[in-house]
Design a protein that fits this description.
By secondary structure, the chain is mostly beta strands. The chain has two domains: 102 residues, no CATH class; 190 residues, no CATH class. Helices cover 12% and strands 43% of the residues. Strands 4, 5, 6, 7, 8, 9, 10, 11, 12, 13, 14 and 15 form a twelve-stranded antiparallel β-sheet that branches. Strands 1-2-3-16 form a four-stranded antiparallel β-sheet, with no helix packed on it. The protein has a two-stranded antiparallel sheet with strand order 17-18. The chain is globular. The relative contact order is 0.22.
């Protein structure tokens, strides 16, 4: 896990030359070329966190209507912020087609905040609950990577259709029970915003494929939004991440002494989140100062 993390760290920080990375006891040392500093990461600092992020009351759905299916897919008619979200499509014998697309927002900024300053996401899943299933004809509910926060209603509607589907659908509506939370497969970990909000939209695969519904054969579902009365049914984004509680930097004059420092096994901590370990810097020519426990 640590070696993989160091490789990921180097890829994410191309300015950090892989000039010398080696292990000293429990520590992993990386030298940065230009700034003349080193980074020290210690094994006890690793924290793995699985967090459920609740949705935002800014979530909504947008519908498009028209006498033709093409018009319904291309032109929004209303945006609704309510206790429910609607995804899918339908066509009635009254010569009216309707398409529904939904929009989700999660505050995931805590991932990149202290004490975990360098967090790497390993798994992401979305949990939604269907309140009413009107899908006589079943369909896949696609999760779209879509930063819709600055979109107008029409832009949000159009960009959901044209946006890139995530690595997994939420689920197919076949055999789905109402009032039962269902969780998606694994989503793209790189899409999650570690310092702000993470946005998704939802669409029917039939909508994306430009496949019109049969007349009077409903093809949509109603999902609980963040404003839904039953909290257990509201949208949840689950993010599993790991990282180091601290990434200590040391000046160039610490490099010589670090190679001579011998680490002893630190005492067991009641919880890994309350204490982290690092090396205390010393100027060139001074004796190693050793390990110092620093309370969080």
């Amino acid at each position: 896990m640590i070696k993989k993390w160091l490789n990921d760290f180097l890829q994410a920080n191309p300015m950090l030359a892989k000039k010398e990375i080696h292990q000293i006891g429990l520590s992993y040392i990386a030298f940065k070329d230009n700034a003349k500093i080193i980074w020290c990461f210690t094994q006890p600092d690793i924290v793995t966190v699985g967090t459920d992020y609740i949705g935002s009351t800014d979530d909504k759905y947008i519908s498009g209507e028209g006498s033709s299916y093409a018009t319904a897919r291309s032109t929004s008619s209303s945006g609704i912020n309510d206790t429910s979200l609607v995804v899918g499509q339908q066509s009635t014998s009254r010569n009216l087609s309707t398409v529904y697309r939904a929009y989700l927002k999660f505050d995931t900024s805590a991932i990149g905040s202290t004490p975990v300053r360098q967090a790497y996401i390993t798994q992401v899943n979305l949990t939604l609950t269907c309140i009413t299933d009107w899908s006589t004809a079943d369909f896949d509910v696609q999760i779209v990577k879509h930063g819709w926060n600055s979109d107008t209603t029409e832009q949000a509607y159009d960009n959901c259709l044209s946006g890139t589907a995530d690595n997994s659908i939420w689920r197919n509506t076949g055999g789905m029970a109402s009032n039962t939370p269902y969780t998606s497969g694994n989503l793209d970990t790189s899409w999650v915003n570690k310092t702000g909000f993470t946005y998704y939209s939802l669409r029917s695969k039939e909508d994306y494929d430009n496949s019109p519904p049969a007349t009077d054969v409903p093809e949509y579902v109603i999902l609980a939004s963040q404003s839904y009365a039953t909290s257990a049914y509201r949208p949840i984004l689950t993010v599993i991440s790991f990282g180091f509680i601290s990434a200590y930097k040391y000046p160039e004059d610490s490099i010589d002494i670090l190679k001579d420092i011998k680490h002893s096994q630190p005492p067991q901590q009641a919880t890994i989140k309350t204490t982290f370990f690092g090396l205390k810097s010393a100027k060139k020519g001074q004796k190693p100062i050793g390990i110092k426990g620093i309370p969080n």
